[in-house]
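sorry for the late reply, my laptop died twice this morning and i had to redo everyting from scratch. anyway the thing you sent over, i finally got around to it. pasting the sequence first so we're on the same page, its 366 residues, then the predicted structure underneath. double check i copied it right bc i was rushing
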Amino acid sequence: MRVMVDRSGLGAVIGLALLGCFFLLLIFRLRLPKYLLLYSSLFFLLIGYAFINAVNIHGEPFFTARGVIRYFSYFAVFILAYYSKITFKQLFWLYTIIVLIQSVLAVFQFAFSGVERPSGTFINSNHFSYFLVPYFAILLIVYSKYLPAFFVFLLSAFLGGMGGVISLLLVLFLFLSHYARRWQKIVAIALFPLFIAGAGFLMQKRVKELTDITAISERLSENQAGGGSSLVWRIVTWKLMYDELVEKDGLYTGMGLEYASLVSPYFLESSIREPHNDYLRILLEFGLFGFILFVYGMYYGLYRLRKNAIELNSTRYYAIYAALAAIYLGMIVGNIVVLNTLWWLLLTIIAIMHKDDKQIEFKASV
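ok and here's the structure:
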């Protein structure tokens, strides 16, 4: 439902309804495991600090609460999925239906509405591209559906998101390095030019834009962000945003939650768009200390997924590990940390796998 209303602007309503259901269940039925509360305590402390800091600096508590609601919804989705009866297979079929519907809509928008970079019901094509990353990983690693995975790769290229395509290539590399047999690696090497050719054909305009990268030094010296490719714009804008953060003495403490949000009443003065770099966003909002803790937590989760994949010989854990690693790579050039649809999906999958592990442990102990 959140995906279907993404473009309409009703996503916040879905988020509030979800949190309402969560709190009702929490009061009357759910019992949160103590170890989950312990692991998530650092997350809540960081969000709470960034909220208080933003209110103290900017004096906009009602708007700043928007970020608290977003991040808390991630936790709520994980807990609700953990106690649900939905299975991994059922969720994958639902995921498949959503991807098919969005793909048809994107093709229709391109063919009949003249939309150059279609996005279905997502806000933009980049959001759709990153939403495809876990699906590609599951197809490739869990179900060994190589031809559908190839079409998903072409779909991502068709959407025009450079970050999404690079993320899928990392998933492919991780699959080949761990699960692929020797003959599969040989076939992959032989077909790799086909992947690149297909992506290059579908992204001709995006590739041509990169020719102005040679002027990056001049643009940086002149602080000129506009008038070039998206990559050049990003790099110059990152410098301007960092300079503004230092100028406002926010490097160590941050400027508070939602400081890097485009619709924020206290948005950055150095840009008219969001950072398109989640690591910079975290630095802007949480400061250097918060940045270190936030990134440590992110990569600790990645480490645990890989560890479980190896110890349990689980293709599911490895698929989510590969997808998460690819998303962390995409976060260098994207606004991914605030994509509710993507994180709700990923955390639901992780919660279901974690629930299955706990049930296996319980049965083994009886």
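The chain has a mean pLDDT of 86.
thats about all i looked at so far, will dig more tmrw
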